[in-house]
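Summary for the steering committee. One of the milestones for this cycle was to obtain a three-dimensional model of the protein with fe (ii) ion bound, which we needed before selecting residues for the alanine scan. The sequence and ligand used are listed below.
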Amino acid sequence: MVTAQVSQAPATSPLAISERTGSISTAEIISILKGEITGLHIKQGFSLEVAEEITANFTRSPGLKERKDGVPGQYIGASHYRKDAASYFAEAENEQPFVDALFGNLVDPVRGLFDALRRELHKHGIELRLASSKYGQANICRAICWSGTGTYVLEPHDDLAQVLCAGDLAAVAKNTVVALNFYPSMPEAGGDLRIWSHKPTAADRKSQGVEATGYPYSTAYLEAVPSHEFKLQAGDIALIDGGFIHGVTRQLGDGKRRLLLNCFFGFARPDLVLWWT
Ligand SMILES: O=C(O)CCC(=O)C(=O)O
Ligand SMILES: [Fe+2]
């Protein structure tokens, strides 16, 4: 007798997407933290002049390095991905001057958002701070140009597995991990952020062999899952629930590079929100 192989399609979770032009508000950011919105795209969310200066500072930075952890890209700053607290916070301390130099004497839009959110949460008795340990303190953001060569410059992944495996931050992964992205430079076409209607469970990760990393999910796994594409331009801001699978489409043409400033935050306790990279 032949037993039919039933391959189960991943369970879909609905996406709640909000896209508009203008200034970001702390109320919207808090909606993502609470899991009410899955993705928020603010077009022209920060100044193009600032965006250009950050891009120029990135390009000429002596701190610019090639990633060596299996995710192709060039970066400034530190990533908790596949690291324990000791290595991550030590790296963040070393990188601090290079991250600061990205902003030179500009009024830093990432710090501006952090400060506004901190003030608002404080009114509700909630503290917002950079994650830290005896080894050091997280940076406000990291800057990255992805350089994958397939369909995606950054393969489909979730941002939760890396947090679950980082012992010091694991408490945050029980809640929404918000990924905050600023785009100082974007190509004319492509380089879009695609988010799939699927929030993998531990069992899903295990079935895909990505328990420790959440990266990468195969095209075959995502084939039947609906998705949404954020069409991004320089000066845009995008926030997503990082528990949903997302990836970045290939850049078309050889115009401007795609540069991203990225960080994560989430509730570690009902009265504490931590921020890291
Ligand atoms: O480059 C982007 O738009 C998304 C980046 C991202 O998903 C990440 O850094 O984990
Ligand atoms: Fe991500």
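Key point for the committee: The pocket of 2-oxoglutaric acid (ligand 1) is lined by residues 154, 159, 179, 181, 193, 246, 248, 260, 262 (CB under 6 Å).
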